[in-house]
Amino acid sequence: MNFFEFDEKLKKYDRLSLERTKSVFEDIEQIEEYNQTKVLNAFIEERVSETDFAGSTGYGYGDIGRDKLDRICAKVFGAEDALIRHTFASGTHTLSVALFGILRPGDKVLVLTGTPYDTIQGVFGNAGESDGSLNDFGVSYEQVDLLPDGTPDLNAIRSRLSWGEYKMAYIQRSRGYSLRKSLTVEEIKALCDAVKEVSPATVIMVDNCYGEFTQKTEPVAVGADIIAGSLIKNPGGGIAPCGGYIAGKKKYIEKCAYRMTCAGVGREVGATLGHNRELYMGLFAAPRVTASALKTAVYSAALFELLGFETTPKYTEKRGDIIQCIKLKNSERLIAFCRGMQSGAPVDSFVVPEPADMPGYDDKVIMAAGAFTLGSSIELSADAPLRDPYAVWMQGGLDFYSAKTGVLLAVSQMIKSGNLELR
Ligand SMILES: *Cc1c(COP(=O)(O)O)cnc(C)c1O
């Protein structure tokens, strides 16, 4: 039984893409196996049991399930300590708690990876605005731009660190929605080594969003002092309904806990309201779901390369996150892509995406997102501003076969709308 009718030529490209990606998929499965056993081992060592899922109300004092999940999260990320909570409202909120937790008036932050993604810029803030940003509290911001090829400028970083006193060096692992490359853990190590060599007292923080479980190690293992990320991306496994995590050195996690609730109280409070089970299940599912998302990205790169489009990263390239960028070269194709992908979503498949104005963007933006969790980008989704090079940023896939169907429907829609001809 064929549930979806695809063009015969497209089926040929599908098979060819699967053949080409075989060895990359094997590498992804090795990473998945390693990370899945790492997570399982942490669950066993911490003796997870039904009672941990009970949750708490009110102050949430003595919530053993919450505290145990913190220890599991720390173990999984190779960290001394961690906070994993549904009460972090978004990834940016989580990063903000970590930044405000560690930084003090007069401190300087040096961003090592060029201009960071849009929403965090409001947290760093603009000079002179009374907006509650870090800048408003006297924390100043500097950045080292990326080299023209989109990689960090190690020489500039070393020299900047040698003439300034920086409390924190900040690294963004994922490309976010830019054309720069994502950083692998090995590249993050090179950055950490450079910081420690020139300025050993500087705290290294990594925005780990979209990077979790894409490799066998996490940034903490190669020198990062603190990492943070969102639970509606990789580490929530598509099950956590919201939240975030912070992991790293114990002394910094304590400061973050004081910022998360309040000074002197920290992690002692925070009712979990019955969300423990979803956070446990999500973390347990995360290595497998991240592997599905990686396969979807690699497959899509291979397919669109065969169809003659430029992709970044290429299907053969080493990955540090789950984002796939495809340059579709005109707006009609971009719109068709998003509409086709939306038509293959398990939720809201009947919705037709339209380009629309978005706060923070000069151009119209079109999105495809049919997810169980609103805004979840570990579920198959795509975003594209309508501007040259008409690139779409896609990510996620709770399982590979449904996500692959979404991608094939995107191509089908490009064909049906007269924007692509297959040879
Ligand atoms: C998604 C993302 C975040 C977190 O964003 P939220 O939308 O606030 O959850 C942080 N950094 C990068 C690079 C991201 O892509």
Spatial sequence of strands, sheet with the most strands: 1-7-6-5-4-2-3
Return the CATH class of the largest domain. Alpha Beta
SSE string, helix = H, strand = E?
A: HHHEHEHEHEHEEEHHEEHEEEH
Number of helices: 11
Distance between the termini: 26 Å
Based on the structure given, which CATH architecture of the largest domain is correct? 3-Layer(aba) Sandwich
The description of the largest β-sheet is:
7 strands, mixed
Gross morphology:
globular
Which structural class fits the helix and strand makeup? alpha/beta
Poorly predicted regions are none
Characteristic terms for this protein:
alpha/beta, five-stranded antiparallel β-sheet, 12 strands, binds pyridoxal-5'-phosphate, Aspartate Aminotransferase, domain 2, Aspartate Aminotransferase, domain 1
What does this structure look like?
The strands form two sheets. This protein has a seven-stranded mixed sheet, sandwiched between helices. The two termini are 26 Å apart. The model has no long low-confidence stretch (mean pLDDT 96). Helix 2 (22-45) runs antiparallel to helix 9 (276-306) and helix 10 crosses helix 11. Helices cover 39% and strands 13% of the residues. It has helices at residues 8-20, 22-45, 64-76, 91-102, 118-124, 154-163, 185-198, 250-260, 276-306, 331-343, 400-416; strands spanning 81-85, 108-111, 140-143, 168-172, 203-207, 226-230, 244-248, 310-312, 324-327, 365-369, 381-385, 391-395. The chain is globular, with a radius of gyration of 22 Å.
